[in-house]
Amino acid sequence: MKLEVLEKDGYYHIYNRGINGCLIFENDENKKFFLKQFSKYLLGKISIFGYCLMDNHFHLVIRLNDDEKIVTQAFSNFFNSYAKAFNKDIDRTGSLFEKHFKRIRLSDEVYLKQLILYVHLNPKHHLGFDFKEYKFSSYQAFISDKETKIEREEVLRLFGGLENFIFCHNQRKDFLTEKHTFE
């Protein structure tokens, strides 16, 4: 599979999972460290529009602010630093992530909005958790007025404001719930 080339000012869905579906996070501390390393290596080079960390995979919604080579190298350094620390922490060796991180370029604002909803609802879809309470997604950062590194104002503007942002998430959640009842 040919990897999508990252381009400056492009919006992307970045995701990956543990090799053979293995856990990439065993506890909350792993997830906190992942986010800390993510900020350390990538903040400024990208803008964050959404994220969600699950036990065996993650999703990031980003915009590139820097050149493709710089961002790709930063992602490589980030993933390597996390994998080495994780492996050391649990006395494990070998690859942690599938070979290359996946990336899909977002074609328009509708796709961007749908992806943000999908990413935030991941805990509900995969684990049955209440997405509103899930600590390791960006949803709470959007509805809070605490300082954040995500592009809160830009995303809320995209959704037509905070009320509509919340409404869209609740509508999508209900749609997923109804869909799963008929399967």
From TrEMBL:
GO biological process: DNA transposition
Molecular function terms from GO: DNA binding; transposase activity
Alphabetized InterPro entries for the sequence: Transposase_17, Transposase_17_sf
Every Transposase IS200-like domain range: 7-122
Protein name, entry field: Transposase IS200-like domain-containing protein
Lineage: Bacteria, Pseudomonadati, Bacteroidota, Flavobacteriia, Flavobacteriales
